[in-house]
Specification:
Layout (H helix, E strand, L loop, with lengths): L26 H5 L3 H4 L10 E6 L2 E6 L6 H7 L17 E6 L9 H7 L7 E3 L12
Antiparallel strand pairs: 1-2, 1-3, 3-4
C-alpha cells in the first residue's frame, strides 16, 4: 500500500511516509532508441550564432531569419544598448566578432553612419538583418 504524499508529509524529519521505488525500465527501451531521439534538436556547438561586442561586453545572438540583430538580441534578453532604432543615432553600434556571414550586407544607413568602421566589423544592430535563409 502506497501512501500519498502531501505537503505536510514532506516536512524534514517525518518518517511516516513509505516511499516506493519506481518500476525499473527495461534496458532494451534505451538501446532501441536512435541517438537522434535521445539528443536535443540541435547541439549548442551547431547552433548558428553571431557574437557581438558592445562596450567591452561580448554576447551571443542566435540566428533568427529576417529579424534585425537588435530585435533578435532583445528577444533573447541580450543587453544591447540602443535608442532611435532607425540608424540615425549610432547607439546600437556593435562589432561583429563571429558569424558575420549570417547577416545581410550593410544597408545604406549603416554605410552612411559607420563609414570606414564597417571594414573593421562594426554594424548597426537596428539595421543589420539576419539572412532569410542560409545554406546548410
Amino acid at each position: 500500500m502506497r501512501k500519498q504524499l502531501t505537503v505536510g508529509s514532506l516536512i524534514p524529519g517525518r518518517s511516516d511516509v513509505q516511499m516506493s521505488s519506481p518500476a525499473p525500465v527495461p534496458v532494451h527501451t534505451y538501446t532501441s532508441l536512435k541517438k537522434t531521439e535521445m539528443s536535443p534538436a540541435r547541439p549548442k556547438s551547431e547552433q548558428k550564432l553571431v557574437q557581438v561586442k558592445q562596450r567591452s561586453q561580448t554576447m551571443p545572438v542566435r540566428y533568427t531569419p529576417s529579424q534585425t540583430l537588435l530585435q533578435a538580441a532583445l528577444t533573447q534578453d541580450q543587453p544591447i544598448a540602443y535608442k532611435c532604432q532607425q540608424g540615425h543615432c549610432g547607439k546600437c553600434s556593435v562589432q561583429i566578432v563571429a558569424g558575420a556571414s549570417l547577416l545581410d550586407t550593410p544597408t545604406g544607413q549603416e554605410k552612411a553612419k559607420l563609414g570606414e568602421k564597417l571594414a573593421t566589423g562594426y554594424r548597426l544592430a537596428c539595421q543589420s538583418t539576419f539572412r532569410s535563409s542560409i545554406p546548410t
